[in-house]
TrEMBL record:
<dbReference type="Pfam" id="PF20537">
    <property type="entry name" value="DUF6752"/>
</dbReference>
<feature type="domain" description="DUF6752">
    <location>
        <begin position="37"/>
        <end position="70"/>
    </location>
</feature>
<dbReference type="InterPro" id="IPR046640">
    <property type="entry name" value="DUF6752"/>
</dbReference>
<protein>
    <recommendedName>
        <fullName>DUF6752 domain-containing protein</fullName>
    </recommendedName>
</protein>
<feature type="coiled-coil region">
    <location>
        <begin position="27"/>
        <end position="54"/>
    </location>
</feature>
<keyword id="KW-0175">Coiled coil</keyword>
Length: 79
């Protein structure tokens, strides 16, 4: 019942004001696009954060390797 009434109202809207109905459909499409873009941005932010964490961990591990090599060298040079 509701679907039929809704469809009837939409048809009536198109007959009475096609420009308004077209604008409403365009707004609806834009809202869907904005929602999808927001989801994409949120996903990208998570990926960037993960990449930053990975880069930080790589830097920490690099520092440990450099320090270990420096310690090994200093022990080798001692008589």
């Amino acid at each position: 019942m509701k679907d039929r009434t809704k469809k009837r109202m939409i048809r009536m809207g198109w007959k009475m004001s096609p420009e308004t109905m077209a604008a409403m459909e365009e707004v609806h499409a834009f809202r869907e696009e904005v929602a999808e873009l927001r989801r994409t941005v949120a996903d990208l932010k998570r990926e960037v954060d993960e990449s930053r964490r990975d880069s930080l961990r790589i830097a920490e591990l690099t520092d440990l390797v450099v320090q270990a090599l420096a310690d090994a060298r200093s022990q080798e040079s001692r008589p």
